[in-house]
Amino acid sequence: MFSSIWPRIAEERYMTYMFQTAIDALGSSQGRDLEAYFANMGIPKDGQEELLLIPAPIAKGIASYVNLTRKLKPGHPYDLPLIPFEQRAGIKFLMEYDVDFSKATIDGRLSAGFDPEDALKKVSCPMLLMQANWSRDETWGLLGAMDDADVQKIRVLVKDLRYAKVDSGHAIHMGEPDWYLEQVDSFLNDALK
Predict the structure, then answer these.
(1) Which helix (H) or strand (E) holds 127?
(2) Please, which residues have CB within 8 angstroms of residue 12's CB and are 6 or more apart in sequence?
(3) pTM, whole model, 2 decimals?
(4) How do the domains of the chain map onto residue ranges?
(5) 99-107 vs 13-26: helix axis angle to the nearest 10?
(6) Sign (positive or negative) of CA dihedral 41, 20, 78, 65
(7) 52 pairs with which residues across the strands?
(8) What is the pLDDT of residue 135?
(9) Residues 6 or more apart from 59 whose CB is under 8 A from it?
(10) Confidence band of 30 (pLDDT split at 50, 70, 90)
(11) What are the Cα distances from residue 43, in Å, to 14, 40, 52, 117, 134?
């Protein structure tokens, strides 16, 4: 809600890096370069400037497997045997991702004229806010979508808010589907009373 809004996005180095990697690898004039995308994916290492990247042979292997499957099964391009659903969904997302979203986020077009605090103050219906794991790296900034300060700001601005935190990665609905459905069902049942 706040971390991807200009100008804060410029301060969130890891988030900006991820968006720029998508632009460079998935938006090239030669098409989507999954190998380049995976080769540049990484996570911060404590106290180090450089990211811990996926090793190049593994990135090449993943991309080759996806590309081969897409050629062999053009009608089912995401039917990747032995790959868990979450990863298949991630590959589908990457192959269909509109890189202009990344560009517009980084350059501020996406949030131009949008004031999240003002928008949140205007919420007049019940709202469910779910938060996954996050951390903050001293070099790379926020690792996640929102930190506790963002959540607190939302809690102050939205009058009728239900908040739930889960031990999960970013895609809560895929990582913890049962928990996710329980939260949504409970929220809707209470909201409709």
Answers:
(1) strand 127-131
(2) 3, 4, 141, 142
(3) 0.90
(4) 8-106, 116-191
(5) 140
(6) negative
(7) 43
(8) 95
(9) 35, 37, 38, 39, 41
(10) confident
(11) 9, 10, 5, 30, 13
Which pairs with CB-CB distance under 8 Å and at least 24 residues apart come from 10-17? Answer: 10/106, 11/141, 12/141, 12/142, 13/139, 13/140, 13/141, 14/44, 14/137, 14/140, 14/141, 14/142, 14/143, 15/141, 15/142, 16/106, 17/51, 17/140
> Which distant-in-sequence residues (6+ apart) come within 8 Å of 41 by Cβ?
21, 53, 54, 59
Strand pairing of 141-143 and 51-53?
unpaired
CA pair distance 164, 185, nearest whole angstrom: 13
Residue with tokens 């589908």: 92
